[in-house]
From TrEMBL:
Gene3D superfamilies documented for this protein: Glucose Permease (Domain IIA)
Origin species: Deinococcus ruber
PROSITE patterns: PROKAR_LIPOPROTEIN
Domain M23ase beta-sheet core intervals: 76-167
Bias kind Pro residues: ranges: 229-238
Record-given protein name: M23ase beta-sheet core domain-containing protein
Keywords: Signal
Length: 238
């Protein structure tokens, strides 16, 4: 989720605050990651198609905004950002049922949530337009369900898809990498977003690879409020 105008931020915060009242699902109701899902785009990645942008977790970008944009999700980037031209077809990552279209879960201007087996949901954010599916509709893995858009609504500022894997309650958010079958090592080599993770110099190897990133709980304490961070927080970090 890249930076966005103030109005979008207010919409995100306000809507999310109203949307997530159900208790979190316990571990026994959550499917273990087994690469059971697919990518949200078809075809090969590339400069004119799609690329992995910001990764999930303790990213440098989320650290700078750990107390503001990401403050309610323990300070980490709680999804994957895929750079893609506006209008790129977005596909369901797995079989499921549409549970919400433009629901109160942020990632404006449009979002979509699909409910899967095993207590999991996938959220597709910053869509170009309202998804052409209906709540209760069954969808299949790979089915086109929406079009990618831009978090700032211009199609030139930050065109990308924000993808999350959550529990059904929307309280717990998981690293999508072990759930999605893809060549993540290759995908992580290119892309338009700054690579890397914030380090805690008191524990410098923790959360430094794409696979090793923590799950987050809505409303929990910041995971990356480090006493000795590296790089240091730049002036103006929030």
């Amino acid at each position: 989720m890249k930076s966005r105008p103030l109005l979008s931020l207010l919409l995100l915060g306000g809507c999310v605050g109203l949307a997530h009242q159900a208790p979190a699902l316990p571990d026994r109701q959550i499917a273990r990651p087994n690469r059971q899902f697919g990518l949200p785009f078809a075809g090969n990645p590339g400069p004119t198609t799609w690329l992995l942008g910001q990764g999930y977790g303790n990213t440098l970008g989320s650290y700078r905004q750990r107390r503001s944009l990401y403050g309610n999700i323990q300070g980490i980037h709680f999804g994957l950002d895929f750079s893609a031209p506006c209008g790129t077809s977005v596909r369901a990552i797995g079989d499921g049922t549409v549970s919400e279209v433009d629901g109160p879960h942020g990632s404006p201007p449009h979002n979509l949530v699909i409910r899967h087996a095993g207590g999991l949901s996938s959220l597709y954010g910053h869509l170009l337009e309202r998804a052409n599916v209906r709540v209760g509709q069954t969808v299949k893995r790979g089915q086109v369900v929406a079009k990618s858009g831009d978090s700032q609504g211009t199609c030139v500022s930050a065109p990308h898809l924000h993808l999350e894997i959550r529990d059904w309650s929307h309280q717990r958010l998981f690293n999508p990498l072990p759930y999605i079958a893809a060549d993540w090592d290759t995908l992580a080599l290119a892309g338009g977003f700054v690579r890397g993770y914030e380090q805690d110099l008191n524990n410098p190897r923790r959360w430094q690879t794409p696979d090793d990133q923590p799950q987050a709980r809505r409303g929990g304490p910041l995971l990356n409020e480090y006493a000795n961070p590296w790089p240091p927080a730049p002036v103006g970090a929030r």
